[in-house]
Structure formats: C-alpha cells, structure tokens
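Figure 6 in text form: structure in, sequence out.
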C-alpha cells in the first residue's frame, strides 16, 4: 500500500524521505510555542518575577536585599522552566510525530517536561540555599520541589495542548486546501482533455483516412480514439493510476497525433516494461505534457518535433522533454494553467516537486512517480 501523512485511507508516498518531509511540513509544532519570541518572553518572565516577589515578600522595600533575592529566585525559576519546556519540545517535533504516535508523544513530552523541570528546580533551589543562605546539602528536603513542579506540569500541559490543537488545525486546513486544489485540477484537466478542438482535429484526420480509402487505418484510428476517451472517463475518479495504463493511453494518444501530423512528430520512449506495474502517476499527467509540447512548438516534415519520454526507475522519476520550436499562439490560448494544475495534483500526493528543466534548445518536465508496495 501507499504511505501517507494524511488520513490512512488516502494514497501517498513510498519513500521514507518524502514522508518525513511531509511530516515536518504539516506538524511543525514549534511555530506555536512562544519560546522563540525572546523579547516578549523575557519581558513576561520579568513581569511575572516582579509580581511573585511582591506576593512572597510582602512589606519588603523594592530595593531591599530580601526583595532582590526573592526577585532573583523567581526570575531564575521562571526563565529556567521556560527554556526547559520550550526548546526540548521543538527538538521532539523532529523525532516523534504527534499525528502518527499521539499517545507516545504525549507520554514522552510529559516525562521530559517533568525531568527537565525537576533539574531546573533542583539547581535553583539548591543553589540559593547553599550559596546564599549557606545551608548544608543535608538540610535540603523534597518539600520545596512539590509546588513549583505541580505549577510547571499544569502550565506545560496547557502549552502542549494548545500547540497540538493549533497544529492539528493547520494540518487539517492544509489537507482541505490541497484536496480542493486537487479536485479543481482534476476537473480542469478533464475539461482540457475533452476539449472540442481535440475531437475536431481527430475527426478531420479520420475524414482524411476515409477519403484516402484506407479502411484499415481508419478502423484502427477509431479504436485508438475510443481508447483515449474511455481512459479519460475511467480515470476521472482516480487520484493515481498504474504507469502501465498511463503509457498505453499515451501510445493511443500519440497514434492519433502522428496520424494527423505525420512525420512532423517523432517520439522516443525509454520506459522499461518491468517497472510499469508497480509505479503510479496521476492520470493524464504525461498526456498533458505531450499536449503542451505539441501546442507550443511548430512541427514540419523537414524539421520534426522531437519528444522523449524516459523513466528512471531507480530515481523514481519520469522525464518528458522536447526540442524547442516555439510558435506564436493566439491571445488567451496559453494560460499556463496546465502545468500549474499538474503541480497542484502532485502536491496533494507527494512532497517531491514537479521539476522544469529548460534551456535554449530543449524543454523538459520531470515527474515524480509513486511506488505501489
């Protein structure tokens, strides 16, 4: 099956690196912790420490030794507990995912918060008792640790719960946005494939075959045209299809185009048959790139358009490239939506980007392919 960072009933990636990238992008809990707002947090710690000093040192003059010692004690406590509970949580975000293992993450977070908070409380309490009050180590008991530790646990649980809920909301919002973009991209792609211009050109080519009295080629043309439209209809509700099905559709589509354009289009395909059944792509992805190549480039018998389709099974990529023979298009015919929609569809399935490789003489697009396990 395909792995996924979205709900378990959806397809996703086969590579662990891509899955990890998706986790990091969706579950970056650290952005919801306030510990990185240094000026704000230090101001908050100072304000909190002053307030606690007035509570624990009532009647003390502001600049008296007792008040200043109480303030230093509170400031070391609050600042130390802030640092002990903020940055370790960010470190955990890169190693234990809330959405994959929520119970494990909660227990680890709670345990780490308790241990680090206890260390801070021990250092601060022991330091003041020994260095300032000149007490011996043996006089230190567990009682001074109870109240600060309980307060720390309550505050820490509140912050972790808040961060988790906000991050879960962000992940849900992003998933819904990507799902909407994917649905829109699929609808736009299908509308493009059922464009009357394609059918009009195909019928013109069929008419020419009939007029040439070539029933064998005409019959094959009709079958290939039927196969193209059958594939479009069958795949409209699928997010991914086997690469083998996509390539059979591509061959039928190219047959129709070569019948219409003759030797003006030459296609070289390097796609090992052994890898086709286990690899997946979004439906009509390859055809979209072929259509763009034919739309944006001129073709002729003397200077044919060269198109190459190459699969790198090890790198899990499919490259569609063509020589550049730019031709002028009517205003509004080229909108750039095709490639943009294709990228949106891939963003819904994988964190690996669709790459464009462009030079003065060649234009190519590298599509990631998914693997069925």
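Output sequence:
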């Amino acid at each position: 099956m395909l792995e996924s960072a979205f709900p378990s009933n959806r397809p996703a990636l086969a590579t662990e690196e891509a899955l990890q990238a998706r986790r990091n992008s969706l579950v970056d809990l650290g952005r919801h912790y306030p510990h990185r707002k240094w000026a704000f947090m230090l101001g908050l710690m100072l304000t909190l420490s002053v307030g606690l000093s007035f509570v624990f040192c009532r009647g003390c003059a502001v600049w008296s030794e007792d008040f200043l010692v109480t303030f230093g004690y509170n400031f070391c406590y609050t600042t130390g507990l802030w640092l002990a509970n903020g940055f370790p949580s960010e470190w955990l975000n890169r190693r234990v995912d809330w959405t994959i293992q929520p119970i494990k993450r909660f227990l680890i977070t709670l345990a780490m918060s308790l241990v680090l908070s206890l260390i801070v409380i021990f250092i601060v309490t022991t330091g003041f008792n020994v260095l300032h009050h000149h007490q011996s180590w043996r006089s230190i008991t567990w009682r001074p640790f109870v109240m600060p530790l309980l307060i720390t646990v309550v505050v820490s649980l509140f912050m972790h719960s808040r961060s988790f809920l906000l991050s879960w909301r962000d992940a849900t919002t992003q998933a819904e946005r990507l799902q909407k973009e994917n649905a829109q991209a699929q609808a736009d792609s299908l509308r493009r494939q059922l464009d009357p211009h394609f059918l009009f050109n195909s019928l013109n080519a069929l008419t020419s075959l009939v007029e040439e009295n070539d029933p064998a080629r005409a019959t094959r043309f009709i079958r290939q045209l039927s196969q193209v439209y059958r594939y479009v209809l069958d795949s409209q509700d699928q997010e991914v299809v086997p690469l083998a099905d996509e390539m059979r559709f591509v061959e039928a589509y190219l047959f129709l185009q070569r019948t219409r354009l003759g030797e003006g289009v030459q296609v070289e395909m390097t796609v090992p048959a052994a890898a086709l059944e286990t690899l997946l792509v979004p439906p009509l992805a390859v055809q979209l790139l072929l259509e763009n190549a034919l739309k944006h480039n001129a073709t002729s018998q003397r200077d044919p358009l060269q198109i190459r389709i190459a699969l790198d099974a090890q790198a899990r990529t499919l490259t569609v490239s063509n020589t550049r023979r730019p031709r002028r298009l009517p205003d509004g015919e080229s909108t750039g939506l095709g490639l943009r929609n294709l990228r949106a569809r891939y963003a819904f399935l994988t964190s690996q980007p669709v790459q464009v490789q462009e030079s003065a003489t060649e234009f190519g697009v590298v599509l990631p392919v998914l693997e069925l396990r």
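Caption detail: The longest helix spans residues 143-193.
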